[in-house]
């Protein structure tokens, strides 16, 4: 990663509790699609969730019956994971150097964390730790800019801070990894202050960039004018990409 990306990756530790409180989970349909595209039934599957953060996706995988292990490089996020999910094992590590023996996993997942890896390393590592017939799954949970008020908010952020504030690199096909894609749309209704707290957990707002506090204050005034009832419906698009590895 470039130096700026490293700084942004490390920024999450200071806001781990806020991240766990305000980042959204995922729709049930995502995990149905995951099983379909991967060919791996989650019940009893050996799964590693890499870049687990506070365990938002890991907890759902566990609830689906997976024998899941969280993998998290950051001390702050790892501590919050353990506080929230003491029943789920967690190891310190990252996707470029996975702490697993070769061929030991049925499924490797990256929930909004693939872009913090070096694909030249994380791709071969995925191939190494997955058994034949296993699968790599990478997904993101992006604001749906097809919805007017969300597109307008994205434009205001870019006007204030420039493009590229929302880091989300898609995995690319490489030797042994050919991805199938599924898109899922979903939404949740939340108070405006919860929406802004969620926005504040993105790395742009955590690294102390000048003007972010003022931006969030102005955004609060704007949203209350637009939605005087005090709530917004956040719309998301989940981009799921799955690559099967060899044949069982």
UniProtKB/TrEMBL annotation:
GO terms for biological process: methylation. Pfam families: Methyltransf_11. InterPro entries: Diverse_substrate_MTase (IPR051052), Methyltransf_11 (IPR013216), SAM-dependent_MTases_sf (IPR029063). Gene3D superfamilies: Vaccinia Virus protein VP39. Residues 49-137 form the Methyltransferase type domain. Keywords: Methyltransferase, Transferase. GO terms for molecular function: S-adenosylmethionine-dependent methyltransferase activity. PANTHER family: METHYLTRANSF_11 DOMAIN-CONTAINING PROTEIN (PTHR44942), METHYLTRANSFERASE TYPE 11 DOMAIN-CONTAINING PROTEIN (PTHR44942:SF4). This is Class I SAM-dependent methyltransferase.
């Amino acid at each position: 990663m470039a130096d700026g990306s490293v700084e942004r990756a490390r920024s999450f530790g200071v806001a781990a509790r806020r991240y766990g409180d305000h980042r959204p989970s995922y729709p049930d349909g995502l995990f149905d699609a995951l099983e379909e595209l991967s060919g791996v039934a989650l019940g009893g599957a050996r799964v590693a969730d890499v870049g687990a953060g506070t365990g938002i996706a890991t907890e759902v995988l566990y609830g689906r019956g997976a024998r899941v292990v969280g993998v998290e490089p950051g001390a702050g996020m790892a501590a919050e994971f353990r506080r929230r999910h003491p029943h789920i094992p967690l190891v310190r590590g990252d996707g470029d150097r996975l702490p697993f023996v070769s061929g030991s996993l049925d499924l490797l997942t990256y929930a909004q964390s693939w872009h913090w890896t070096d694909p030249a390393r994380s791709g071969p590592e995925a191939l190494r730790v997955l058994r034949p017939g296993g699968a790599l799954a990478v997904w993101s949970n992006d604001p749906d800019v097809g919805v007017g008020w969300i597109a307008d908010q994205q434009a205001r952020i870019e006007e204030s801070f420039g493009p590229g504030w929302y880091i989300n690199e898609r995995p690319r096909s490489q030797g042994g990894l050919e991805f199938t894609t599924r898109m899922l749309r979903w939404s949740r209704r939340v108070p405006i202050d919860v929406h802004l707290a969620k926005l504040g957990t993105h790395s742009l707002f955590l690294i102390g960039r000048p003007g972010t506090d003022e931006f969030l204050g102005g955004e609060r005034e704007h949203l209350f004018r637009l939605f005087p009832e005090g709530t917004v419906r956040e719309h998301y698009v989940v981009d799921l990409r799955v690559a099967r590895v060899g044949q069982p």
